[in-house]
Amino acid sequence: MRKSDEIRGWAGDLEVTVCNLHAKKLWWQFPVAIGMSILLLPACSMAFMLDFTFEPGVPADLQTAVNYAGGLWESWLLDTASGESEDVEIKIDYRDLGANVLGEAGPTYVWYDDDYAYLPSIGAILYGADDTDNMDGVINFSNRFTWYYGTDGNPGASQYDAVTVAVHEIGHQVGFYDSYEASTNNKWGYNITGTYRLMHYDTFLRDEDGDAPVAGGGDSFNETDNPVYFVGTNAKLANGGDDIPIYAPSSYSPGSSLSHLDVQEPFSNYMMAPLYHEVCHDLSDVEIGILRDLGWQAVPEPATVVLLGLSSLIFVLRRRR
Ligand SMILES: [Zn+2]
Questions:
Q1: Which residues place a Cβ less than 5 A from the ion ligand 1?
Q2: 122: Cα separation from own chain's centroid
Q3: What is the distance in A from the centroid of ligand 1 to the CA of 309?
Q4: Which residues contact 44 (CB under 8 A, 6 or more apart)?
Q5: Residue 320's pLDDT is what?
């Protein structure tokens, strides 16, 4: 697997307005999920590690919130690269991002093979690509808003929860990132040494007619189909067998279109929705499914497994009577 030159562009504007906590569901699922996951871990898996480098001017309390969010992701994803692997290094900055944008994220390069391009985190962690020197990605936080830097998910009425935005932006660094470039050439894929390659994530997208993105353009994929769909097997399994709607408004929204879940219920409440609404510190089963389709081993296990665990527990208890 080879490494591209530096690339530019942001996917992952988290705009001001939806992300609902699943606390009601998780309070009982969580211990069971952790227990099941430990049993299912292959022996060669290790913890996935994120390293943050903070630019001067990033408030110390924001650094604490970002490190906390990184710890959450480290508890959710496993490092499955064979042999040596490395940490994912992300630079964090705090600056003016315009009127409605809370945060943005992007990779600094992509890994590529003959067919596809991959995010730095996926190249390193899932394929063992070695890059010890470079920053892998950048996340910027807006300095225009009143942030809540606590890690308990309890912001005041006029505050934005920094952990929620940090968790969301890291989500773009580990998978939720498309390669469509509307601002320059309306093409899919990265032009690397003369050949366009789709981002791995792109290959799971379909529009209403079932068309898929084609590297280099010339395709019939409708990027403003409102929505388009993610059709990976694991994600569909977590969504009752249905395709997952992906945000693709009829007016293309740079940084938001194609790299987020759609703004319809229940997806609008999940972490990778494009609009901020409430505190969200956890992954939905659908998002875990998407990460699995992208190659990650993710914990906790999907709810289907959890439910099986609970059913068998109940079964055992009854049998003992
Ligand atoms: Zn985003």
A1: 12, 14
A2: 11
A3: 33
A4: 80, 82
A5: 44
